[in-house]
Protein backbone atom coordinates (compact mmCIF):
# COMPACT_ATOMS: atom_id res chain seq x y z
CA UNK A 1 0.00 0.00 0.00
CA UNK A 2 1.34 3.43 -0.86
CA UNK A 3 1.56 5.71 2.16
CA UNK A 4 0.71 4.97 5.75
CA UNK A 5 -2.60 4.35 7.51
CA UNK A 6 -3.45 5.28 11.12
CA UNK A 7 -5.78 2.73 12.70
CA UNK A 8 -7.62 3.05 16.04
CA UNK A 9 -7.56 -0.27 17.90
CA UNK A 10 -9.17 -1.39 21.19
CA UNK A 11 -5.87 -2.83 22.40
CA UNK A 12 -3.17 -0.25 21.62
CA UNK A 13 -5.02 2.90 20.62
CA UNK A 14 -3.64 4.52 17.43
CA UNK A 15 -1.17 2.42 15.42
CA UNK A 16 0.41 3.12 12.03
CA UNK A 17 0.83 0.62 9.17
CA UNK A 18 1.42 0.50 5.44
CA UNK A 19 0.79 -3.24 4.96
CA UNK A 20 -2.39 -4.79 3.55
CA UNK A 21 -2.88 -8.48 2.70
CA UNK A 22 -5.45 -8.98 -0.04
CA UNK A 23 -7.72 -12.04 -0.36
CA UNK A 24 -6.37 -13.92 2.65
CA UNK A 25 -7.99 -17.33 3.27
CA UNK A 26 -9.46 -17.57 6.78
CA UNK A 27 -10.97 -20.67 8.41
CA UNK A 28 -13.25 -20.19 11.42
CA UNK A 29 -15.73 -22.55 13.10
CA UNK A 30 -15.63 -24.92 10.14
CA UNK A 31 -16.29 -22.24 7.53
CA UNK A 32 -13.85 -20.74 5.00
CA UNK A 33 -13.70 -17.07 4.04
CA UNK A 34 -11.59 -14.83 1.83
CA UNK A 35 -10.91 -11.46 3.38
CA UNK A 36 -8.69 -8.38 2.98
CA UNK A 37 -6.61 -7.75 6.12
CA UNK A 38 -4.76 -4.70 7.39
CA UNK A 39 -1.52 -5.79 9.12
CA UNK A 40 -1.05 -4.24 12.56
CA UNK A 41 1.76 -4.59 15.14
CA UNK A 42 -0.43 -6.32 17.76
CA UNK A 43 0.24 -9.30 19.98
CA UNK A 44 -2.11 -11.69 21.75
CA UNK A 45 -4.67 -11.89 18.91
CA UNK A 46 -4.72 -13.19 15.35
CA UNK A 47 -7.49 -11.22 13.65
CA UNK A 48 -9.87 -8.41 14.61
CA UNK A 49 -13.13 -8.61 12.64
CA UNK A 50 -14.93 -5.34 11.98
CA UNK A 51 -18.65 -4.73 12.41
CA UNK A 52 -19.22 -4.47 8.65
CA UNK A 53 -17.73 -7.93 8.07
CA UNK A 54 -19.72 -9.45 10.96
CA UNK A 55 -22.94 -7.96 9.63
CA UNK A 56 -22.28 -8.99 6.03
CA UNK A 57 -21.59 -12.60 7.04
CA UNK A 58 -24.63 -12.80 9.33
CA UNK A 59 -22.63 -13.53 12.48
CA UNK A 60 -24.57 -13.96 15.74
CA UNK A 61 -22.56 -13.68 18.97
CA UNK A 62 -24.12 -15.02 22.18
CA UNK A 63 -22.17 -13.37 24.99
CA UNK A 64 -23.76 -15.47 27.72
CA UNK A 65 -22.97 -18.87 26.22
CA UNK A 66 -19.79 -17.55 24.56
CA UNK A 67 -20.72 -19.01 21.17
CA UNK A 68 -20.63 -17.73 17.60
CA UNK A 69 -23.17 -18.75 14.96
CA UNK A 70 -23.20 -18.08 11.21
CA UNK A 71 -26.65 -18.09 9.64
CA UNK A 72 -27.68 -18.08 6.00
CA UNK A 73 -30.54 -16.16 4.46
CA UNK A 74 -32.49 -19.42 4.29
CA UNK A 75 -32.00 -20.00 8.04
CA UNK A 76 -33.24 -16.50 8.84
CA UNK A 77 -36.40 -17.19 6.88
CA UNK A 78 -36.36 -14.27 4.47
CA UNK A 79 -39.68 -13.88 2.67
CA UNK A 80 -40.24 -12.11 -0.63
CA UNK A 81 -43.20 -9.75 -0.22
CA UNK A 82 -45.77 -9.10 -2.93
CA UNK A 83 -47.14 -5.71 -3.87
CA UNK A 84 -50.89 -5.09 -3.89
CA UNK A 85 -50.79 -5.01 -7.69
CA UNK A 86 -49.08 -8.42 -7.86
CA UNK A 87 -51.55 -9.91 -5.39
CA UNK A 88 -54.55 -8.69 -7.40
CA UNK A 89 -53.03 -10.13 -10.59
CA UNK A 90 -52.54 -13.52 -8.91
CA UNK A 91 -56.14 -13.35 -7.72
CA UNK A 92 -57.40 -12.67 -11.28
CA UNK A 93 -55.30 -15.58 -12.52
CA UNK A 94 -57.04 -17.90 -10.07
CA UNK A 95 -53.93 -18.67 -8.05
CA UNK A 96 -54.73 -20.04 -4.59
CA UNK A 97 -53.48 -17.67 -1.86
CA UNK A 98 -53.63 -17.52 1.93
CA UNK A 99 -53.75 -14.39 4.08
CA UNK A 100 -51.43 -14.23 7.10
CA UNK A 101 -51.55 -11.40 9.64
CA UNK A 102 -48.01 -10.64 10.76
CA UNK A 103 -46.67 -8.25 13.37
CA UNK A 104 -43.11 -6.97 13.64
CA UNK A 105 -41.75 -7.10 17.15
CA UNK A 106 -38.60 -5.89 18.88
CA UNK A 107 -39.14 -8.60 21.47
CA UNK A 108 -37.78 -11.19 19.10
CA UNK A 109 -38.15 -14.85 19.90
CA UNK A 110 -34.40 -15.08 19.33
CA UNK A 111 -33.86 -13.01 22.49
CA UNK A 112 -35.79 -15.53 24.58
CA UNK A 113 -34.06 -18.45 22.85
CA UNK A 114 -30.67 -17.12 23.93
CA UNK A 115 -31.49 -16.95 27.64
CA UNK A 116 -31.01 -20.09 29.76
CA UNK A 117 -34.17 -21.18 31.66
CA UNK A 118 -36.09 -18.23 30.19
CA UNK A 119 -36.13 -20.07 26.85
CA UNK A 120 -38.27 -22.76 28.50
CA UNK A 121 -41.12 -20.27 29.02
CA UNK A 122 -41.70 -18.31 25.79
CA UNK A 123 -45.44 -18.06 26.53
CA UNK A 124 -44.68 -15.78 29.52
CA UNK A 125 -43.26 -13.13 27.16
CA UNK A 126 -45.85 -12.40 24.44
CA UNK A 127 -45.76 -9.21 22.38
CA UNK A 128 -49.19 -8.29 23.77
CA UNK A 129 -51.46 -9.62 26.52
CA UNK A 130 -53.29 -12.31 24.51
CA UNK A 131 -56.72 -12.16 26.17
CA UNK A 132 -58.76 -10.78 29.04
CA UNK A 133 -57.56 -12.10 32.42
CA UNK A 134 -58.82 -15.49 33.62
CA UNK A 135 -60.70 -15.93 36.87
CA UNK A 136 -58.22 -15.27 39.70
CA UNK A 137 -58.18 -15.50 43.49
CA UNK A 138 -58.40 -11.70 43.58
CA UNK A 139 -60.72 -9.32 41.72
CA UNK A 140 -60.73 -5.56 41.83
CA UNK A 141 -63.68 -4.06 43.70
CA UNK A 142 -64.67 -0.45 44.43
CA UNK A 143 -66.49 0.02 47.75
CA UNK A 144 -68.02 3.49 48.17
CA UNK A 145 -68.63 5.64 51.20
CA UNK A 146 -72.33 5.14 52.21
CA UNK A 147 -74.66 7.67 50.65
CA UNK A 148 -72.38 8.39 47.67
CA UNK A 149 -74.07 9.45 44.46
CA UNK A 150 -72.52 8.86 41.01
CA UNK A 151 -70.19 11.62 39.79
CA UNK A 152 -69.92 12.52 36.12
CA UNK A 153 -67.66 15.22 34.67
CA UNK A 154 -67.45 16.78 31.22
CA UNK A 155 -64.61 15.62 28.94
CA UNK A 156 -61.46 17.76 28.87
CA UNK A 157 -60.72 19.77 25.75
CA UNK A 158 -58.14 18.19 23.41
CA UNK A 159 -56.26 19.29 20.30
CA UNK A 160 -56.82 17.60 16.94
CA UNK A 161 -53.64 15.53 17.31
CA UNK A 162 -54.64 14.47 20.83
CA UNK A 163 -58.08 13.43 19.62
CA UNK A 164 -56.52 11.29 16.90
CA UNK A 165 -54.27 9.61 19.48
CA UNK A 166 -57.23 9.15 21.86
CA UNK A 167 -59.26 7.47 19.14
CA UNK A 168 -56.38 5.15 18.29
CA UNK A 169 -55.86 4.10 21.92
CA UNK A 170 -59.59 3.59 22.48
CA UNK A 171 -59.74 1.27 19.48
CA UNK A 172 -56.78 -0.65 20.86
CA UNK A 173 -58.46 -1.05 24.27
CA UNK A 174 -61.68 -2.20 22.61
CA UNK A 175 -59.82 -4.71 20.41
CA UNK A 176 -58.15 -6.17 23.49
CA UNK A 177 -61.54 -6.27 25.28
CA UNK A 178 -60.11 -4.26 28.18
CA UNK A 179 -62.99 -1.75 27.94
CA UNK A 180 -66.56 -1.86 26.69
CA UNK A 181 -69.23 0.74 25.83
CA UNK A 182 -71.02 2.00 28.93
CA UNK A 183 -74.33 3.51 30.01
CA UNK A 184 -73.08 4.13 33.55
CA UNK A 185 -74.12 7.26 35.51
CA UNK A 186 -70.45 7.58 36.43
CA UNK A 187 -68.03 9.35 34.12
CA UNK A 188 -64.43 10.51 34.60
CA UNK A 189 -62.61 12.75 32.11
CA UNK A 190 -59.50 11.56 30.26
CA UNK A 191 -56.23 13.22 29.35
CA UNK A 192 -53.07 12.28 27.47
CA UNK A 193 -49.69 12.51 29.18
CA UNK A 194 -46.38 12.37 27.30
CA UNK A 195 -44.07 9.50 28.29
CA UNK A 196 -40.26 9.58 28.36
CA UNK A 197 -40.05 8.06 24.87
CA UNK A 198 -42.33 10.77 23.42
CA UNK A 199 -45.41 8.56 23.04
CA UNK A 200 -48.67 9.42 24.80
CA UNK A 201 -50.23 7.61 27.74
CA UNK A 202 -54.02 7.58 28.16
CA UNK A 203 -54.86 8.60 31.74
CA UNK A 204 -58.27 8.64 33.41
CA UNK A 205 -58.80 11.38 36.00
CA UNK A 206 -60.36 9.30 38.77
CA UNK A 207 -59.86 11.92 41.51
CA UNK A 208 -63.58 12.35 42.15
CA UNK A 209 -64.13 8.58 42.34
CA UNK A 210 -61.11 8.16 44.63
CA UNK A 211 -62.50 10.76 47.07
CA UNK A 212 -65.57 8.62 47.75
CA UNK A 213 -63.87 5.20 47.67
CA UNK A 214 -63.29 3.35 50.94
CA UNK A 215 -59.52 2.91 51.06
CA UNK A 216 -57.95 -0.54 50.96
CA UNK A 217 -55.31 -0.57 53.72
CA UNK A 218 -53.37 -3.53 52.36
CA UNK A 219 -49.73 -2.64 53.12
CA UNK A 220 -47.08 -2.12 50.48
CA UNK A 221 -43.67 -3.46 51.57
CA UNK A 222 -41.02 -1.07 52.89
CA UNK A 223 -38.20 -0.69 50.42
CA UNK A 224 -35.51 -1.06 53.09
CA UNK A 225 -37.15 -4.30 54.29
CA UNK A 226 -36.98 -5.67 50.74
CA UNK A 227 -33.32 -4.72 50.41
CA UNK A 228 -32.46 -6.42 53.70
CA UNK A 229 -33.55 -9.78 52.25
CA UNK A 230 -30.74 -9.76 49.68
CA UNK A 231 -28.01 -10.87 52.08
CA UNK A 232 -25.46 -13.08 50.31
CA UNK A 233 -27.08 -12.73 46.86
CA UNK A 234 -24.75 -12.52 43.85
CA UNK A 235 -26.93 -13.41 40.82
CA UNK A 236 -30.11 -11.48 39.97
CA UNK A 237 -32.99 -11.48 37.50
CA UNK A 238 -35.70 -8.84 37.27
CA UNK A 239 -39.16 -9.38 35.77
CA UNK A 240 -41.53 -6.53 34.92
CA UNK A 241 -45.11 -7.59 34.21
CA UNK A 242 -46.73 -6.24 31.05
CA UNK A 243 -49.41 -3.69 32.01
CA UNK A 244 -49.75 -5.52 35.30
CA UNK A 245 -52.99 -3.85 36.41
CA UNK A 246 -54.69 -4.94 33.19
CA UNK A 247 -54.11 -8.56 34.20
CA UNK A 248 -56.64 -8.31 37.05
CA UNK A 249 -60.39 -8.32 36.34
CA UNK A 250 -62.87 -5.80 37.76
CA UNK A 251 -65.87 -7.25 39.58
CA UNK A 252 -68.92 -7.17 37.33
CA UNK A 253 -70.93 -4.94 39.67
CA UNK A 254 -68.08 -2.40 39.91
CA UNK A 255 -67.27 -1.98 36.21
CA UNK A 256 -69.76 0.88 35.88
CA UNK A 257 -67.81 2.90 38.49
CA UNK A 258 -64.71 2.90 36.24
CA UNK A 259 -66.63 4.63 33.42
CA UNK A 260 -64.93 7.49 31.56
CA UNK A 261 -66.23 10.02 29.06
CA UNK A 262 -64.58 10.95 25.76
CA UNK A 263 -65.28 12.74 22.52
CA UNK A 264 -65.84 9.28 21.02
CA UNK A 265 -68.20 7.83 23.58
CA UNK A 266 -68.69 6.51 27.08
CA UNK A 267 -66.70 3.43 28.17
CA UNK A 268 -65.97 1.37 31.28
CA UNK A 269 -63.10 -0.94 32.20
CA UNK A 270 -63.34 -4.73 32.40
CA UNK A 271 -59.78 -4.89 33.78
CA UNK A 272 -58.23 -2.94 36.64
CA UNK A 273 -57.44 0.57 35.37
CA UNK A 274 -54.52 2.79 36.30
CA UNK A 275 -55.28 5.74 38.55
CA UNK A 276 -57.82 4.19 40.92
CA UNK A 277 -56.90 4.49 44.58
CA UNK A 278 -56.89 0.84 45.64
CA UNK A 279 -55.17 -0.69 42.60
CA UNK A 280 -51.64 -0.94 44.13
CA UNK A 281 -52.90 -2.72 47.25
CA UNK A 282 -55.04 -5.17 45.29
CA UNK A 283 -52.20 -6.09 42.95
CA UNK A 284 -49.74 -6.38 45.82
CA UNK A 285 -52.12 -8.73 47.63
CA UNK A 286 -52.37 -10.97 44.59
CA UNK A 287 -48.61 -11.11 44.07
CA UNK A 288 -48.05 -11.97 47.73
CA UNK A 289 -50.59 -14.78 47.44
CA UNK A 290 -49.04 -16.49 44.44
CA UNK A 291 -45.42 -16.07 45.61
CA UNK A 292 -46.06 -16.54 49.33
CA UNK A 293 -43.96 -19.73 49.62
CA UNK A 294 -40.92 -18.05 48.06
CA UNK A 295 -41.02 -14.51 49.46
CA UNK A 296 -37.80 -13.46 51.23
CA UNK A 297 -36.22 -16.79 50.30
CA UNK A 298 -35.28 -15.94 46.74
CA UNK A 299 -38.03 -13.55 45.62
CA UNK A 300 -39.01 -10.01 46.56
CA UNK A 301 -41.96 -8.27 44.92
CA UNK A 302 -43.06 -4.65 44.79
CA UNK A 303 -46.41 -4.42 43.00
CA UNK A 304 -45.58 -5.62 39.45
CA UNK A 305 -41.77 -5.69 39.80
CA UNK A 306 -40.27 -9.08 40.68
CA UNK A 307 -36.65 -9.61 41.74
CA UNK A 308 -35.17 -13.11 41.88
CA UNK A 309 -31.88 -13.37 43.78
CA UNK A 310 -29.50 -16.29 44.40
CA UNK A 311 -26.05 -17.07 45.76
CA UNK A 312 -24.79 -18.84 42.63
CA UNK A 313 -25.79 -19.75 39.07
CA UNK A 314 -27.01 -23.26 39.92
CA UNK A 315 -29.39 -21.91 42.56
CA UNK A 316 -30.49 -19.12 40.25
CA UNK A 317 -31.49 -21.51 37.49
CA UNK A 318 -33.76 -23.34 39.94
CA UNK A 319 -35.19 -20.13 41.43
CA UNK A 320 -35.82 -18.52 38.05
CA UNK A 321 -37.55 -21.66 36.78
CA UNK A 322 -39.87 -21.71 39.82
CA UNK A 323 -40.91 -18.07 39.34
CA UNK A 324 -41.50 -18.43 35.61
CA UNK A 325 -43.53 -21.59 36.21
CA UNK A 326 -45.79 -19.68 38.62
CA UNK A 327 -46.28 -16.93 36.04
CA UNK A 328 -47.08 -19.52 33.37
CA UNK A 329 -49.60 -21.35 35.55
CA UNK A 330 -51.30 -18.10 36.60
CA UNK A 331 -51.29 -16.79 33.01
CA UNK A 332 -49.40 -13.66 33.99
CA UNK A 333 -47.35 -12.04 31.24
CA UNK A 334 -44.09 -10.08 31.35
CA UNK A 335 -42.62 -7.43 29.06
CA UNK A 336 -39.34 -8.85 27.81
CA UNK A 337 -37.81 -5.47 26.93
CA UNK A 338 -38.09 -4.42 30.58
CA UNK A 339 -36.81 -7.69 32.04
CA UNK A 340 -33.19 -8.53 32.81
CA UNK A 341 -31.70 -11.92 33.56
CA UNK A 342 -28.54 -13.49 34.99
CA UNK A 343 -27.03 -10.24 36.23
CA UNK A 344 -24.23 -9.59 38.68
CA UNK A 345 -25.57 -6.07 39.19
CA UNK A 346 -29.18 -4.91 38.79
CA UNK A 347 -31.17 -1.70 39.08
CA UNK A 348 -34.25 -2.25 41.24
CA UNK A 349 -36.58 0.31 42.83
CA UNK A 350 -34.08 3.15 42.46
CA UNK A 351 -31.12 1.18 43.85
CA UNK A 352 -28.15 -0.56 42.27
CA UNK A 353 -27.82 -4.01 43.84
CA UNK A 354 -24.83 -6.33 43.54
CA UNK A 355 -22.86 -8.83 45.57
CA UNK A 356 -20.86 -5.88 46.93
CA UNK A 357 -23.90 -4.15 48.45
CA UNK A 358 -26.57 -1.56 47.68
CA UNK A 359 -25.98 1.87 46.15
CA UNK A 360 -28.12 4.80 45.01
CA UNK A 361 -29.11 4.66 41.34
CA UNK A 362 -26.87 7.20 39.51
CA UNK A 363 -29.86 8.56 37.56
CA UNK A 364 -31.46 9.58 40.86
CA UNK A 365 -28.21 11.16 42.01
CA UNK A 366 -28.18 13.29 38.85
CA UNK A 367 -31.73 14.44 39.56
CA UNK A 368 -30.73 15.50 43.08
CA UNK A 369 -27.54 17.30 42.03
CA UNK A 370 -29.47 19.38 39.48
CA UNK A 371 -32.32 20.28 41.85
CA UNK A 372 -32.81 24.03 42.04
CA UNK A 373 -33.50 25.88 45.30
CA UNK A 374 -37.15 25.27 46.28
CA UNK A 375 -39.46 28.27 45.97
CA UNK A 376 -42.54 26.83 47.69
CA UNK A 377 -43.70 24.26 50.24
CA UNK A 378 -44.75 21.94 47.40
CA UNK A 379 -41.23 22.02 45.95
CA UNK A 380 -39.71 21.33 49.39
CA UNK A 381 -41.99 18.31 49.84
CA UNK A 382 -40.95 16.98 46.42
CA UNK A 383 -37.26 17.31 47.29
CA UNK A 384 -37.69 15.75 50.74
CA UNK A 385 -39.69 12.92 49.17
CA UNK A 386 -36.80 11.97 46.90
CA UNK A 387 -34.13 12.58 49.53
CA UNK A 388 -36.11 10.67 52.16
CA UNK A 389 -36.35 7.66 49.87
CA UNK A 390 -32.59 7.27 50.36
CA UNK A 391 -32.43 8.25 54.02
CA UNK A 392 -30.66 5.02 54.97
CA UNK A 393 -27.64 6.27 52.99
CA UNK A 394 -27.43 9.52 55.01
CA UNK A 395 -26.43 9.37 58.66
CA UNK A 396 -28.56 11.68 60.82
CA UNK A 397 -30.99 12.38 57.98
CA UNK A 398 -33.87 13.64 60.19
CA UNK A 399 -31.68 16.13 62.03
CA UNK A 400 -30.04 17.32 58.84
CA UNK A 401 -33.41 17.82 57.08
CA UNK A 402 -35.10 19.51 60.08
CA UNK A 403 -34.91 23.13 58.77
CA UNK A 404 -36.64 22.05 55.56
CA UNK A 405 -39.17 19.83 57.33
CA UNK A 406 -40.21 22.71 59.59
CA UNK A 407 -41.10 24.83 56.55
CA UNK A 408 -43.73 22.26 55.55
CA UNK A 409 -45.65 22.62 58.85
CA UNK A 410 -49.15 24.01 58.55
CA UNK A 411 -49.29 27.75 59.29
CA UNK A 412 -45.52 28.13 59.09
CA UNK A 413 -44.54 31.15 56.91
CA UNK A 414 -42.27 30.27 53.98
CA UNK A 415 -38.95 31.95 54.79
CA UNK A 416 -35.88 30.50 53.11
CA UNK A 417 -32.97 31.40 55.40
CA UNK A 418 -29.31 30.43 55.71
CA UNK A 419 -30.16 27.29 57.72
CA UNK A 420 -32.50 26.08 54.99
CA UNK A 421 -29.89 26.76 52.32
CA UNK A 422 -27.25 24.89 54.32
CA UNK A 423 -29.58 21.94 54.93
CA UNK A 424 -30.58 21.78 51.26
CA UNK A 425 -27.00 21.87 49.97
CA UNK A 426 -25.71 19.36 52.53
CA UNK A 427 -28.47 16.87 51.70
CA UNK A 428 -27.57 17.19 48.01
CA UNK A 429 -23.90 16.69 48.78
CA UNK A 430 -24.52 13.65 50.98
CA UNK A 431 -26.76 12.01 48.38
CA UNK A 432 -24.36 12.60 45.50
CA UNK A 433 -21.52 11.04 47.54
CA UNK A 434 -23.61 8.30 49.16
CA UNK A 435 -21.64 5.15 50.04
CA UNK A 436 -22.34 1.57 48.99
CA UNK A 437 -24.17 -0.11 51.87
CA UNK A 438 -22.73 -3.53 52.59
CA UNK A 439 -25.31 -6.03 53.79
CA UNK A 440 -24.17 -8.23 56.69
CA UNK A 441 -22.95 -11.71 55.86
CA UNK A 442 -25.35 -14.53 56.78
CA UNK A 443 -23.00 -15.79 59.53
CA UNK A 444 -22.97 -12.29 61.07
CA UNK A 445 -26.73 -12.15 61.49
CA UNK A 446 -28.16 -12.77 64.98
TrEMBL record:
CDD domains: retropepsin_like (cd00303), RT_LTR (cd01647). One of its GO terms (molecular function) is RNA-DNA hybrid ribonuclease activity. Keywords: Endonuclease, Hydrolase, Nuclease, Nucleotidyltransferase, Protease, RNA-directed DNA polymerase, Transferase. It comes from the Eukaryota. Its EC number is 2.7.7.-, 3.1.26.4. One of its GO terms (biological process) is proteolysis. Residues 174-353 form the Reverse transcriptase domain. Pfam families: RVP_2, RVT_1. InterPro entries: DNA/RNA_pol_sf, Peptidase_aspartic_dom_sf, Rev_trsase/Diguanyl_cyclase, RNA-dir_DNA_polymerase, RT_dom. This is Putative nucleotidyltransferase, Ribonuclease H. It comes from Medicago truncatula.
Amino acid sequence: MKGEMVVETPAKGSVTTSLVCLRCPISMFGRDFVIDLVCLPLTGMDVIFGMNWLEYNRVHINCFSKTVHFSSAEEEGEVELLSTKQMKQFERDGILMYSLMAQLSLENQAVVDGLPVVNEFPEVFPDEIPDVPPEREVEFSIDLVPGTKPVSMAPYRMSASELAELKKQLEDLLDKKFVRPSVSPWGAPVLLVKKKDGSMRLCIDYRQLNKVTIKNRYPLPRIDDLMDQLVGAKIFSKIDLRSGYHQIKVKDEDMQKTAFRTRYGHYEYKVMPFGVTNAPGVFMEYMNRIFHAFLDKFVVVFIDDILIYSKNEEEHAEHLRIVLQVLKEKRLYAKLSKCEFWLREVSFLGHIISGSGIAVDPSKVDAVSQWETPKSVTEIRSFLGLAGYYRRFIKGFSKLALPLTQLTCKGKPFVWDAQCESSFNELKRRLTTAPVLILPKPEELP
